Amino acid sequence: MTMNGAQSLVRTLVDADVDVCFTNPGTSEMHFVAALDDVPQIRGVLGLSEGVVTGAADGYARVADKPAATLLHLGPGLANGLANLHNARRGHTPVVNIIGDHATYHKELDAPLESDIEALAGSLNGWVRRSSSTAEVGADTAAAVAAAQDAPGQVATLILPADVSWGEGGTPVAPKASRSPRQVDSDTVKGIAEVLRGGEPVALLVGGAACREAGLRALSRIAKATGAKPFAETFPSRIERGAGLPNIERLGYLAEQVAYQLDGVRHLVVVGTRAPVSFFAYPGKAGDLVPEGAHVHTLAELGDDVVAALEELADEVAADVEPDLAPAQRPELPSGDLTPQNWAQVIGALLPENAIISDEANTSGLLVPMTTAGAPRHDVLTLTGGAIGQGMPVATGAAIAAEDRPVINLESDGSALYTIQSLWTQARENLNVTTVVLNNRAYAILRMELQRVGAESSGPKANGLLDLSTPDLDFVRMSEGFGVPATRARTAEELAEQFRRAVSEPGPHLIEAMVPPLL
Fold this sequence. Notes:
InterPro entries: DHS-like_NAD/FAD-binding_dom, THDP-binding, Thiamin_PyroP_enz_TPP-bd_dom, TPP_enz, TPP_enzyme_TPP-bd
Number of strands: 17
Number of domains: 3
Largest sheet: 7 strands, mixed
Helix content: 25-40%
Protein name: Thiamine pyrophosphate-dependent enzyme, possible carboligase or decarboxylase
Organism: Saccharomonospora azurea NA-128
Radius of gyration: 24 Å
CATH superfamily of the largest domain: Thiamin diphosphate (ThDP)-binding fold, Pyr/PP domains
Oligomer: single chain
CATH class of the largest domain: Alpha Beta
Keywords: Thiamine pyrophosphate
Number of helices: 20
Shape: globular
Family: Belongs to the TPP enzyme family.
Structural class: alpha/beta
Strand content: 15-25%
């Protein structure tokens, strides 16, 4: 069968088990758009902004454990989606990023949308290739899918010129094997075991796949047998939690929190992550958060089989030890006006079975890990790269990856406004997402940071830039405008009643929770 380049690309994607494409296309991508009808096995999902597209691909892959594709329009389209691709990069999420470009012979004319796509894509530190002929598109696509899944996962960007897309002579190519995680040498495991037996205080810090059940159980066994302090990285891509699983504390966001958590530690063992550093520099404070004089040891690098390494270490130092598991336990439903504390108790009391939480609650959500520790088993997807505007798109992609699971998006008001167009996609696709927007009418975290960096914070101009109350934001009306039914809660009782109803009904819902700032 004769096909054009776009058709060979889409067929190669499907053959490689990439069956969802999130897109906001333009003229250069029209042959790809048409090819979606020729290959019905792939699902095209429209996002109204590129940040929604890229964030949804990130959320999809975190839950599906395989990549989705994006389809973006030229350099500006890629630039609009870079923030959430940055989060995917930091979370080592596999994403196949397809960027349409001008026809090869048109580029020399320097048309208004001409840009250096390779330079933009290169900032993601992933895989980048430009298809130079229609005959090569299939092979380039297969290579992109394999590269995206190379351990530990990355963003793979394929640039597709328009004439290469519409040209005839394309051929689908069979999937290529991706690079598997490396096995950790047994001598490395035995060396870490000696550190744990050495009698000095040890902390273990895990990330990546180690934040799933098998890794957490091994980590708990090791900690229980040796007295080491177990921690998960601050912002894991996906962490499994709830009753019947080890309740592993995440390392804090603030340097002061980390200093408290690691106080007295003489050895830090890192597994599938890096030694902690502060998110920002502060006058007169160290950015390296490893305690002074402590030694850092690496059990497994990012691209290693971190779960196998942890399980081997557990067998070495805790052969007959069972992990400590969180009991089934929920907070009592609170009453009264909503506060930064009691709204989280409502979520912990009512979180549905097998939920996926997309957590971008930021300062309002500090107590959520505590209130949900004994809730039914669930997954939490966090803000891996710190670029806000992730929560709503990630929830959207997660809901497409797991249509039989309830998705709960805990969302701060300032972050929601970056990609609130996600609601339209949720309505269009009838996704099972319940969004709780915490409206404290402020960039509360920036109020805190203004003080922590030692900047003068009393001036009206400075405070005005951190205020979201003039005019007040109305998330109920915004949500309804995008086609998602919405309610507003001012008390714990109202939030509980509205949350119960939202998670019991099909399709998307939004609850605007009016809470005062924590800080």
